[in-house]
Amino acid sequence: MKDNILEIKNLSVGFNIEINNVEKFFYALNSVNLSFERNKIHALAGESGCGKSVLINTILKLLPKNAVIKSGKIVFNNDNILNLKDKEFRKIRGKKISLIPQDPFMSLNPLYTVENQMLEVFSSKTKGNIEKIKWALNEVRIKNIDNVLKSYPHELSGGMKQRVIIAMSLVQDSELILADEPTTALDVSVSNSILNLLLDLKDKGKTIILITHDLSIVSNYCDTTSIMYLGDIVEGANSIELFKKPMHPYTKALLNALPTKRGKKLENIKGQISPITDIIIGCKFHPRCNYEMEICKNQKPELCGADCHLVSCWLYQKK
Ligand SMILES: Nc1ncnc2c1ncn2[C@@H]1O[C@H](COP(=O)(O)OP(=O)(O)O)[C@@H](O)[C@H]1O
Ligand code: SF4
Ligand SMILES: [Mg+2]
Asked: Which of 28, 37, 80, 319: disulfide with 54, CB 3.0–4.6 Å?
């Protein structure tokens, strides 16, 4: 049996949104089921607006006030964290589960030096704690450690700030690291070095969920990939299988939109992702799908399959 660090069961989350002075509820996640095996890198991919950050913020209990969790469980190391009181969850968030955000500046206190931010993890400034911080900064391949320790966040580059945040998760000895588009704000060479650090974290026994809209980074770094579309998981498999034999038309479209061979024209995905306030009956991808059938407009396909390759599409299901 697989050793899952995190299991998401039947999770539905949405927002109360005011339209024409009337508040209505709209789903951003629909009965999401996902399991994450320990000591792997898992990708969660899809275009902007498909619900990736809502999922991460639900796991971290950082949802905004207008959000409502309608159903589901999030089981972390056998505990449903949705049942934990805020005080209990504070022992987990930022400690056992940590976040590498898209914008590292948001996670660092602009008024504290790197040393003081990292010391916040401990209750005191001892020689041993400073040594542990230096060890973590060395692990994320920061060279001029003494200078970086004295620096304020605004004095560091984007890549350096991400390294500091990853070092903090090492100091905290987090088991699960949620990386929400951690390289989107960085240029390519820095981005690759940060992704290589995620591989190092895996070698240290950590589990990583890498959120991305860019499938080109997934095949090199992630063991499994789940594709999300408008709050639904539409396909999931190990990454090699998914790249070799993509099944869902949305996954195929995302892969066809990747730059591969020189001179090959990139195919744009037809149309645009809709806002959650647009209610789409049937398969949510049908307005954009080249394989759309009559049933797709009326009935939503289930996520099903075999050999750990799951897909929700009428092309593969009995009607
Ligand atoms: N506080 C909010 N109120 C209303 N809608 C929201 C709120 N936060 C996110 N959404 C909507 O939920 C959907 C999913 O958003 P998000 O998870 O941020 O997408 P992604 O991270 O995949 O780009 C989007 O349509 C977004 O506009
Ligand atoms: S269910 Fe129909 S519309 Fe949806 S992806 Fe499959 S073929 Fe396309
Ligand atoms: Mg996001």
From this structure: 28
Ligand 2 pocket check for 246: Cβ under 6 Å: no
Rounded distance from Cα 13 to ligand 1 centre (Å): 11
Regarding the beta carbon of 285 and ligand 2, being less than 6 Å apart is answered yes
Per-residue pLDDT of 279-308, as tens digits, reads: 999 999 999 999 999 999 999 999 998 778
What domains are there in the chain, each with its CATH number? 4-96+174-316 (3.40.50.300)
Beta bridge partners of 306: 309
Q: Is 51 in the pocket of ligand 1 (CB under 6 A)?
A: yes
Tokens of 16: 């109360």
Q: Provide the whole-model pTM.
A: 0.93
Ligand 2 in reach of 301 Cβ (< 6 A): yes
